[in-house]
Amino acid sequence: MSTDSPFAALGNIRDTGEVEAQVREIVLAFAPGHDLSRVAESFSLLDRAFDGKLPGYQSLKTPYHNRSHTNEVVLCAARMLHGLQLAGQGLDSDHIDAALIGAMMHDVGYLMSDEEASGRGGQFTDTHVLRGVEFTRRHLPGLSANVLDSTIKVILLTDHRKPSDWVSFDNLQQQRAAYATATADLIGQMANREYLERVLLLYLEFEEAQMGGFADLHDLLEKTRAFYRMIKGRLDQDLNGLSANLALHFNQAQGSNRNFYTESIDRNLDYLDRVVSIERHHRLDSLKRGGVVEQIRSLPGDH
Predict the structure, then answer these.
(1) Residue pLDDT, tens place only, 171-191
(2) What's domain 10-297's architecture?
(3) Among 198, 272, 184, 166, which residue's Cα sits nearest to residue 228?
């Protein structure tokens, strides 16, 4: 693996089957004998739901909060749990499952029911976390009361607009599970090789949600560096700096004592600085990954 490509170390998050296999491998490496049946059931549920095969629901339509985003979060969460175990802060079986299932369900609230005919899901930006809690209660009734309760608290903590103390925890294990997944949600998406392009898709969701604060997608790009400063404060202070434990995972799993997530984020931010220094008229020409800019330019309106 090239040391010039920290992105490569993060793996393929487009292939859900590959992500599930990696999660299984990671968990069984640090928790041999762990029963992954509840995690497998949750993967299967999301497959059906996101593909429009769950009765009563449409397929997932949000352009940013898509299946790849869920995959990157659950994979990062598994690595976080491994890092915590190596740091002497490992979780028991129920809380391992709560962290991983919570990661899978944290954005399922963007799914639209058959009755919600219009839009793509972005209109639920403000309510998607609570919608995800309800979806989890309804569709994973087989979880024990303890695991379900912990999973719900994991999901709730991924509402990053709220202070971290808005969720009360019953014990330290439950808190660690929630902190691990909330950290993975932030770290996973910002380390994605196509993050800067995907910010443009995030703007479309904000537009649908009629959220103020951004004049246009260029304004969102220009404010992304400041957004990261705010997120870094949340990671380091509110979430106890748990992301540092990812280096422990990579050291054991890949033999490299590096945090490929933070390296990837740094690369994205360095390139962001270059992009926003370009005049707006030519700026999108520098964002070439994933065919996102072509998608944006094909939309009606002034983007």
Answers:
(1) 999 999 999 999 999 999 999
(2) Orthogonal Bundle (1.10)
(3) 272
